[in-house]
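Hey L., structure's done. Input below.
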Amino acid sequence: MEIDAARAVARSLGATRHVEMRVDLSAFGGSALTDGIDVPKDRDLAAADIPSTYVPARNTVFLSLAMAWAEAIGARDVYIGVNALDYSGYPDCRPEFIAAFERLAALATKAGVEGAALRIHAPLIRMTKAEIVRRGVELHVDYALTHSCYDPGVAGSACGHCDSCRLRAKGFAEAGVVDPALER
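Output:
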């Protein structure tokens, strides 16, 4: 289901190339998203703990793959959609992580050693979910192609109770925009 959604988003954005590869972090487990652990529902979003939906090193893995592809095609910019304001407390969504990864990219790549280091951009990192929703509307993002649920139903419908659903709902409500994911 996620692969089909990613393909639909890539098509809608006019991507010239959409690379798919199997990266199965369930081999390690350690998360409600990659293991047999229940996804927490109706959790206190202000809690300071890192929730069980944190996937160990996921953004490090994704950025490493993006860095490799960028270097292979001669790109100098990598973008990631992490957010540090309205989020669940994941350590790899913080500005310090993004800055550290950018330093790593300068040290760990031929491009970086030769003075053409990659830039890691996280344009959403300091935005509220409402600001993200409003910016997406300005950019004509088709939110009907998206959902954020950590525990979707068989047909892909959002559960409405996981952290991600609740943060998304809050963002849409604060932006004054109807979330098309709720209409499915």
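The beta strands are 77-79, 119-121. Residues 2-183 form a domain with the Rossmann fold fold (CATH 3.40.50.620).

-- N.
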